[in-house]
Each structure stands twice: as structure tokens, then as C-alpha cells.
Amino acid sequence: MRPVAFFTGMQTVGLAIAFSQSPTTSLVEQLHRTVKASTRLQLTAQPERARQATGGPVFIKTKLSNVHSRSVRLSLTQQEFDYRVTVTDASGVEAPLTEWGKKLKLGEAFPIRQTTSDIEPGRDEQVTVEVSKVYDLSRPGTYTVRVVRNGVWPESEEDTRRVIEQVTSNPVSFTIVP
């Protein structure tokens, strides 16, 4: 199990745990995986509260639904690794990161556990994500969040070596008030 930041061009796509079902998959092969949007899962998000007080924690509720006819396997590590959030202000500029958020983005933080779980067809997984743990939301204003669920195992054994599958939520907004 090796923590690896995956890149597309100059943009970090996400931090994931590089794991291989085959010991012959090299680190170079893992870094050259293609990121693919999942068609087997649907991720919806909503703010816990549309208006939040400055300085308080901010939570986003997510619902991950299996819309496929077969089970979908997910890696389970820690919430901040499994669910990556991106927060922008009203002008589209990314909000400042907390110290923890900087460590996540730079690949300096690592999950302390890893296991897997299957979501059966027609079933949901609900998780509440603490956005304020990653982003400094101390300034009043309106913010928009997108959540990405990492760690979706590809459908075929062969794709495990070449594809990173993930699912992205709808954008949701909330307002920080003084």
C-alpha cells in the first residue's frame, strides 16, 4: 500500500492509495492510470445548513447510490481521502486551505486504514463530510462545493491496472454569515 498523488497535466486529480491486485503493477503504471467518471454510481450532495455562522464547522451530506445492475467495490480509508471536496467562493476562486487541507493537497497526509466495501445494486451509502476541516471558511460569503468519491474499483480486473474510477457530485452552495 503506497500513497500516491495522481496527476493529469499540471493538475492534481486526487490523492489515492495505490493498491494493486497484481504485484507486477509498477508505480509508473499506477501513475499513468486514466481517470474515468463512474457510470455505475451517482453522488448527490446537499449542505447540512444553507446558512452557517462564521467559525463553526461546515458539513455536506452526501448520498452515493449504486445505479448499476451489479455490486460496486469501494476502497474505504478515511473520509478526507475517500471524499475529496473542492470549495470555491462566489467569484469561482478556490477557498483557502486549512493546514490539514494543505497536507492533503500536497500528499503529505496518509490514511491510517484501508479496507473495501461493496455497495449492492439499488443501495445507498450516506456520509456527512466536514468541509471546514479541509478549507478555511472563516470569511463570510457564498461558497460552492463539489464532492468527488475516490476509490471506486473499476469493473474489470484488467481496468484495475489502467483506470481510476471516481464519481462527482452536483455542485451545492452555502453561505457563511457573520
Structure report:
- This protein has one domain: Immunoglobulin-like (Sandwich).
- It is mostly beta strands.
- The N terminus is likely disordered.
- The longest helix has 8 residues.
- Strands 3, 5, 8, 11, 12 and 13 form a six-stranded mixed β-sheet that branches. Strands 4-6-10 form a three-stranded antiparallel β-sheet, with no helix packed on it.
- 10% of the residues lie in helices and 48% in strands.
Question: What characteristics describe this protein?
Answer:
six-stranded mixed β-sheet; single chain; 178 residues; 48% strand; three-stranded antiparallel β-sheet; mainly beta
Give Rg in angstroms.
17 Å
Distance between the termini: 44 Å
| CATH level-two architecture | Sandwich
CATH topology: Immunoglobulin-like
What is the molecular shape?
A: globular
Q: What is the share of helical residues? A: under 10%
CATH class: Mainly Beta
Overall tally of structural domains = 1
| Main sheet characteristics | 6 strands, mixed
Proportion of residues in extended strands: over 45%
The number of helical segments is: 3
Averaged pLDDT: 80
User: Could you say which structural class the secondary elements and strand pairing correspond to?
Assistant: mainly beta
From N to C, what is the helix and strand string? EEHEEEEEHEHEEEEE
* Total count of strands: 13
Indicate the low-confidence ranges by residue numbers.
1-30
Brief sketch in words of this structure:
The protein has 178 residues and is mainly β. Helix content is 10%, strand content 48%. The chain has a single domain (2-177), classed as Immunoglobulin-like, CATH 2.60.40.2970.
